[in-house]
Amino acid sequence: MASPGNPHSYIEVRVEVPRNLSDAVCNFIIENICSGLVLDEEDGSDIVGIKFYLPENARNDYDQKLSTYLSSLISMGESLSTIPPIVEKAVRSVEWEQEYRDSIQAVVVAGDVSVRPPWKEMPGSTRHDIIIEPKMAFGTGSHESTRGCIAAVRKWFRPDMRFLDLGCGSGILCILADKMGAGYIKAVDYDQLAIENCGENFIVNQIGAAHDIVHGSIDSCQNDRAYDFVCANIIKSTILDMLDDLKRLTKPGGYLVLAGLLEQDEMEVSEKLLKLGLDSFEVFEDNEWRTFVVRGV
User: Fold this and answer.
1) 178 and 291 together in one domain
2) In terms of domains, do 31 and 150 share one?
3) Taking the complete model, does pTM exceed 0.85, yes or no?
4) I want to staple 256 with a disulfide (CB 3.0 to 4.6 A). Which of 89, 107, 250, 263 is the partner?
5) Residue 48 pLDDT greater than 70, yes or no
């Protein structure tokens, strides 16, 4: 095992789970352990391998967190009978960086938005070309929740709107808003690495709108003037906790997009929206993921 003091040494962690649980496990890892991961999938296989990377000197008890979560899936009667092995090995920084780079492909979302890493060519002729240096931040355009948000922005965002992105990750939604003529953009994330990546991507894409990139949570928006368009691509528990504040931060007549939600979250989120008087909303499906677009807040 590499020396804990070597900042260039990492551990690669791999766990195999049933395909129907892979999105939930990935979401847990991203929210609680690290900001990015790599999937090993074989066509026709019911098992998905999930790999993520941690600095050797910042292990953060990941194994206990992950084991506890997997155990909870068993107790809930999910299609998991025993905790699968959590396997780790030491790797050099260049090894996992190259593997992660190789796993990122250019994609086209919402018909005319291309999202690609700098080392890939734009896939055909698209109206909005977004370049993302993915590193290990969430949001490369391939995940269902990101696709749902992109589609919502593409359909309803208008020039000069004020745009707020909570859980901005790589900044992909903010970049699209800028390309569509945003008047002001605020990107917020609790993950410092995501914030740094977002800043880099803003530079690569030559963001022209006035903007702020903030390390923090919704608390950093308490004194903000209401926004025309708000995106919160997080998880159900966090969204429900902040829904009152999200309503306040969304301008009357504006749009509130809620993502990072699974099929089983739909009823609870819908009920909370109705209790707050937010009864004008649509729910868009992408596999087991759901994106809510609340209109006329």
Assistant:
1) yes
2) no
3) no
4) 250
5) yes
